């Protein structure tokens, strides 16, 4: 099977290069690999923000069925979302053997807000263009070309495209919980600039709540403004990055202020304010959390807690002597992949432009 893996991954990279590296004799990107461009473009037309991936799932599953693949749609339930929201993982393969040895994977959801695709003859723009619909397009076209070339056999490779990666992590967790066999390999597509990722960081989401005392806005001296409390606290929290340990493999640990809210109406002193801070950890998450709680865990009127489960840094497998290697500063669905097998991370696009307008 390793022979097939070595064959498939370079093929995917070569197919993707048609978009990443325009040929000198072809100006318009759509002419370089029409099927790849068309698939990528049509996926970008689907509004699939986290929690509402149905348009993308319907389109991609239909596309794969039209190409003759067996397609399973796995329901994904999330108690914090409306019960009538239809969310499904896509699992596709050749023939009838679903217990594949290699799983090619990425995610169908994107961060909000969605906006439609556009291009300038050399680059493609649109929400999810590189995170991660570009990787899906490359994987699917590589799979279909290898299938047409007679390289693949039933049970060699399956395609898994899960929901919720950007916000909930529930799609991959649902699939892992349902596994009844052990795949030998998983290859996840995320924006790595076509580097082989040697690893990526873990993550902690931190909720910060400030409690004040309400009063009429005409006499603010009789209250205590929670917004001012949290504005005073957040720089102290963010400055802790200078105290975090540096890992020689995964690198530094970062803190990023993701959101802040506070107050209710204009004529009232805010008695509550909240912020979310995301940490990308280069060392075990507990080590960072212990530093945070010991340094700023007892500030009056400020309460900090973790949102959901934290994840630790991961090391990935690589193919020696193939493509260049690089550590990645973010996390992926592989944090929920608890199967003891070979794990690869590689895809198109750059994290520098992921989640940006």
From TrEMBL:
<keyword id="KW-0862">Zinc</keyword>
<keyword id="KW-0378">Hydrolase</keyword>
<dbReference type="Pfam" id="PF01546">
    <property type="entry name" value="Peptidase_M20"/>
</dbReference>
<keyword id="KW-0732">Signal</keyword>
<dbReference type="InterPro" id="IPR050072">
    <property type="entry name" value="Peptidase_M20A"/>
</dbReference>
<feature type="signal peptide">
    <location>
        <begin position="1"/>
        <end position="17"/>
    </location>
</feature>
<dbReference type="Pfam" id="PF07687">
    <property type="entry name" value="M20_dimer"/>
</dbReference>
<dbReference type="GO" id="GO:0046872">
    <property type="term" value="F:metal ion binding"/>
</dbReference>
<dbReference type="InterPro" id="IPR002933">
    <property type="entry name" value="Peptidase_M20"/>
</dbReference>
<dbReference type="InterPro" id="IPR011650">
    <property type="entry name" value="Peptidase_M20_dimer"/>
</dbReference>
<dbReference type="GO" id="GO:0016787">
    <property type="term" value="F:hydrolase activity"/>
</dbReference>
<feature type="domain" description="Peptidase M20 dimerisation">
    <location>
        <begin position="198"/>
        <end position="286"/>
    </location>
</feature>
<dbReference type="InterPro" id="IPR036264">
    <property type="entry name" value="Bact_exopeptidase_dim_dom"/>
</dbReference>
<protein>
    <recommendedName>
        <fullName>Peptidase M20 dimerisation domain-containing protein</fullName>
    </recommendedName>
</protein>
<comment type="similarity">
    <text>Belongs to the peptidase M20A family.</text>
</comment>
<keyword id="KW-0479">Metal-binding</keyword>
